[in-house]
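Cross-check.
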Amino acid sequence: MIEALPKPWMRDSLLSELELAKGNREEAVAYARQAWQGCRGVQRYVSYKNYELYLPEALASA
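Predicted model, tokenized:
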């Protein structure tokens, strides 16, 4: 199902959540950074706020 997503940032965001659920924090951070850099507008703001709570290290270089 992930391959069917129309935007790459959506795919990266979901992969980040899956990796976080598995306990792979470093991979989750890498996907989160890619997702955050790939989105714009409201999605960027929502992603920022979500990562600010759950993966603050993903935004360290932002």
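The mean pLDDT is 91. Residues 8-22 form the longest helix (15 residues). Passed to J.P. for a second look.
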